[in-house]
Amino acid sequence: MSLNDHAQAALDSFEQAAGWEQRARLLMQWGERLSPLEAAEKCEANRVHGCESQVWLVAEQHEGQWRFKGASDARIIRGLLALLLVRVEGLSSRELQQLDLPGWFNQLGLGRQLSPSRSNGLNAVLQRIAQLAADA
Amino acid sequence: MFQPSPWRADFPAIAALQRQHQTYLDNAATTQKPQLLLDALSHYYGHGAANVHRAQHLPGALATQAFERSREKVASWLNASDPQQIIFTHGATSAINLLAYGLEPLFEPGDEIVISAVEHHANLLPWQQLALRRGLRLIVLPLNSHGVIDLDAALQLIGSRTRLLAISQLSNVLGTWQPLSPLLAHAQAQGALTVVDGAQGVVHARQDMPLLGCDFYVFSSHKLYGPDGLGVLYGRTEALARLRHWQFGGEMVQVADYRSASFRPAPLGFEAGTPPIASVIALGASLDYLAGLDENAVATHEASLHRQLLRGLDDREGIRLLGTPQCALASFVIDGVHNADLAHMLTEQGIAVRAGHHCAMPLLKSLGLDGAIRVSLALYNDSDDLQRFFAALDQALELLR
Question: pLDDT tens-digit profile of A42-93?
Fold first, then answer.
């Protein structure tokens, strides 16, 4: 599946990042790009549990295309959310189900963030997205 | 000045971790193991495993002998008068659950169980659920601002309806010793049974059961440089006799019929099924190792590292300690920095510390926090470990601020 322009830009910058510090800086910069949630969107139904930090995921479908918004009180997970959303934005449920999201994070050099002992919540967010795609 | 640990080389995993650029400072979660333990495991499996207390054949006799030798070593480590006061369980959690089920018939609706606000989930949830099953009141002793149980309040709250007091000795989050003596004495004067969760305490000070005077004492092997999958429950002989049998199965039975059975007394009556034989034998080896160390030298070393840890944290701006840690560990949060972000940065730099709620969610909530970073020490840590931690912390804060 081809990457949209934003996802391609993310991939380019992470591929060039040398070392953990630069990746951490990039992650935090990407996190700043998330559009803020309305207070009402930070509700229990949108909470993703299984994270050390608070994470919300808002999902809507418009004419078969998924639109996501996400937020967290921690900066690294905000960055991971932004990199996730840039990859899944505008996809159909069918496309979402076929997408290899762990592969996406591996490409970015962030595969370790998905290890089961990490409690940053990225795994829980991926499960929520898979659930949404399957239910739709 | 560099402070080495004279015992570091006794733990082969420390060098292995260092080759992977890992600095291990999560010792309150679990500890690395001495070579003596690895040798004991390898010897047991390499020379013939056998089940215990069942067979008359030679391997069975040798395994049983080694297994019961460990019971004696644990008893002597705790200065318990009789090895039969030591029950082996599958962990400290399992030991406390054994108590919560084994003591259940002693409670009447309206009776009170007293715990403290500092408890790990393992010494909270079994009692909370027992209270829900039997219609009991769960009383939670409050802490003072240092993270120590408020003694005045506690002596008021422990009263004639108190049937049981269950408290930890050393907090796994705050690093505070709890005032056990007055609490235990007061609870016993009210006719209550007493349970001490020694999971952290047993690691950082030698324990003397008759002196401590509790009815039950619980700890886990793996935090005391022993193997995992093994917990220890010590009980006063009279207290053990009050336990109802809990798990049923092989070797805990005296006479079994299809429709009825009678059971052995402690300890074997509470060790249903095949116990973790290799772990029990290996714990014996860890205790042999620990018994060979200069107790004062270990305590002095740990205290000095702990002072360095507290001083380093105090030197940095915006760091807020949880409670007033006295021993072994320190938990902290940093103004304006999310502990999950800090944990990420430390992990990236090979610093193994713990972030989160430390299995004490109600305690963290009561402090108005949803997580904290915990640095916890063991006897094999040295001052370089702390320096690497502080260098990584400074680097993380530079990125995050």
Answer: 999 999 987 778 899 999 999 999 999 999 999 999 999 999 999 999 999 9
Q: What is the largest CA-CA distance in chain B?
A: 70
Nearest CA of chain B to the CA of A37: how many Å?
A: 19
Q: Do B338 and A73 touch (CB under 8 A)?
A: yes
Shared domain for B109 and B164, answered yes or no, is yes
Q: What CATH number is given for A5-135 in this structure?
A: 3.90.1010.10
Give the residue from B233, B264, B291 where a domain finishes.
B291
Residue A49, phi then psi, degrees to nearest 5: -90, 165
Distance CA B101, CA B119 (A): 19
Q: What ipTM is given for this predicted complex?
A: 0.92
Contact B78, B287 (CB under 8 A): no
B336 → chain A, closest CA residue: A74
**A52 to B344: CB separation less than 8 angstroms, yes or no:** no
Does residue B31 sit within a domain?
A: no
d(CA B232, CA B102): 15
Which residue of B340, B349, B400 is in closest CB contact with A52?
A: B340
Partners of A28 on chain B (C-beta within 8 Å) are 399
| pTM, 2 dp | 0.95
pLDDT tens, residue by residue, B249-296 = 998 999 999 999 999 999 999 999 999 999 999 999 999 999 999 999
Single residue among B267, B291, B315 that ends a domain in this structure: B291
The domain in which residue B350 lies consists of 8-25+294-400
B255 and B183 within one domain: yes
Q: How far is B397 from chain A (nearest CA, A)?
A: 12
If residue B274 lies in a helix (H) or strand (E), which one and from where to where? none
